[in-house]
Design the sequence.
């Protein structure tokens, strides 16, 4: 049995003196900028959809209700209801949870961006 592969991989491998940075301009065509712009627009729209309705729910809705709605019964509502004696509004609880999760994700993103910027300054 022959232990050699059938095709010689990387048989003509050459490492450029500049590390390949001389060919980077070929990667940046007009479609790269279009897709980058599309990604930023998508991010802004997602942040809008996640934050604005939840902030409106926190400002407009009553935070606690005495009425229990069996269709909107959450486990966290039962826990808060036992502590306070009144049931919190489900829309408000979900708005708090979604905004909290959004805050955690945004803080993680900012932490990673800060680490990238800091590492590029150190290099």
Sequence:
């Amino acid at each position: 049995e022959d232990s050699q592969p059938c095709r010689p991989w990387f048989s003509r491998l050459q490492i450029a003196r500049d590390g390949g940075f001389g060919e980077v301009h070929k990667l940046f065509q007009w479609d790269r900028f279009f897709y980058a712009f599309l990604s930023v627009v998508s991010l802004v729209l997602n942040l809008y959809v996640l934050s604005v309705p939840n902030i409106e729910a926190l400002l407009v809705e009553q935070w606690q209700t005495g009425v229990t709605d069996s269709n909107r019964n959450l486990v966290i509502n039962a826990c808060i209801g036992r502590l306070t004696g009144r049931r919190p509004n489900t829309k408000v609880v979900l708005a708090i949870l979604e905004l909290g999760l959004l805050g955690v994700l945004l803080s993680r993103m900012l932490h990673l961006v800060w680490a990238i910027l800091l590492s590029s300054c150190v290099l």
About this structure: The chain is about 60% helix and 5% strand. The chain has a mean pLDDT of 81. Residues 59 and 92 are 9 Å apart (CA to CA). The first helix runs from residue 30 to 60.
